[in-house]
Automatic annotation (TrEMBL):
This is ParB/RepB/Spo0J family partition protein. The keyword Acyltransferase does not apply. PANTHER family: CHROMOSOME-PARTITIONING PROTEIN PARB-RELATED. Residues 43-133 form the ParB-like N-terminal domain. Belongs to the ParB family. Residues 1-12 have a biased composition (Basic residues). The keyword Isomerase does not apply. Residues 1-31 are annotated as: Disordered. The lineage of its organism: Bacteria, Pseudomonadati, Bacteroidota, Cytophagia, Cytophagales. Keywords: Chromosome partition, DNA-binding. InterPro entries: Chromosome_partition/occlusion (IPR050336), HTH_ParB/Spo0J (IPR041468), ParB/RepB/Spo0J (IPR004437), ParB/Sulfiredoxin_sf (IPR036086), ParB_dimer_C (IPR057240), ParB_N (IPR003115).
Length: 303
């Protein structure tokens, strides 16, 4: 039979979901299973007949946000139906829309509007992952884990994954590299203590101890992405330089510079502070006259 549908160009996401979201069973079969078929193709399904999605990529749902959505649903109803697949007679499994599903339960709904799709486990995983990546406000780490699962469990290559989610290969790779960071840094990304920009800078530090030192400083001092990049750059440049004396650790160098600025402010004159990796060094406080010297001595409480 000839296909009379117009040949419209689809987005990257459309190509991914279009291949997966197959048509529901024939009308006669659907009417046996779901007598409440509507002309729109949306079914009213009892909430207690729906299982949660075991492939859900989001691991955390904000309780307050869910309660707000539940209040909205009480007033406005479900604006966008969830998507499910049929497992058995009057038994369904959630594909996408878990926030709406959970909020509807909080709102006390007995039934929820849903699209019914046919999908095997792999297709269901891919649909759930792609739908969440595109529609939910996932943090960078959740996106990275979703990309990793699409590659590993859906047997996709990075180019194919990029097409599915509408991202180029470089962007996909940047997210995947986050998973190589130590657990404490990954947790900070998840909890939004540091941004994707901070994480991308930290990835370029090969030494884990130095990586963690810069990370700790970035969090404690709320350093900008540029400052973290500068610390990482100084570390990497020092590592490649040929010098007779070992390069001072960039984190320690940063701390010494801050202390030098504090001393200069305290004494009201330029102060020179030097130290080596063995914590040996010197402090120089210049003076320009006898009265200037007396001023410094008074600050030191020597006279």
């Amino acid at each position: 039979m000839a296909n009379n549908k117009p040949n419209r160009k689809k987005s990257a996401l459309g190509r991914g979901l279009g291949a997966l979201l197959q048509d529901s069973p024939a009308k006669s079969n659907s009417e046996e299973i779901l007598p409440e078929v509507q002309k729109t193709g949306i079914f009213e399904i009892p909430i207690d007949s729906i299982q949660v999605n075991p492939f859900q990529p989001r691991t955390h749902f904000d309780k307050e946000a869910l309660e707000e959505l539940a209040e909205s649903i009480k007033v406005q109803g479900i604006i966008q139906p969830i998507t499910v697949r049929k497992l058995d007679q009057n038994e369904y499994q959630l594909i996408s829309g878990e926030r709406r599903f959970q909020a509807s339960k909080l709102a006390g709904l007995d039934k929820i509007p849903a699209y019914v799709r046919t999908a095997n486990d792999q297709q269901m995983l891919e649909m759930a992952l792609i739908e969440n990546i595109q529609r939910e406000n996932l943090n960078a780490l959740e996106i990275a884990h979703s990309y990793q699962r699409l590659l590993a469990e859906c047997d996709l290559k990075q180019e194919e994954l990029g097409d599915r989610v509408g991202k180029n290969r470089t962007t996909v790779n940047n997210y995947l590299r986050l998973l190589k960071l130590p657990p404490s840094i990954q947790a900070a990304i998840r909890d939004q203590q540091i941004s994707m920009g901070h994480a991308r800078a930290l990835i370029n530090v090969e030494d884990i101890d130095k990586q963690l030192a810069i990370f700790k400083k970035a969090v404690e001092e709320e350093l900008s992405v540029r400052k973290v990049e500068a610390l990482v750059k100084a570390l990497n440049e020092g590592k490649g330089a040929k010098k007779e004396k070992p390069e001072l650790d960039p984190v320690k160098k940063y701390e010494l510079n801050k202390l030098q600025q504090r001393l200069a402010s305290h004494f009201g004159t330029k102060v020179s502070l030097k130290s080596d990796n063995k914590n040996r060094g010197e402090i120089k406080i210049p003076f320009h006259s006898a009265s200037d010297l007396n001023r410094i001595l008074e600050i030191l409480e020597i006279i």
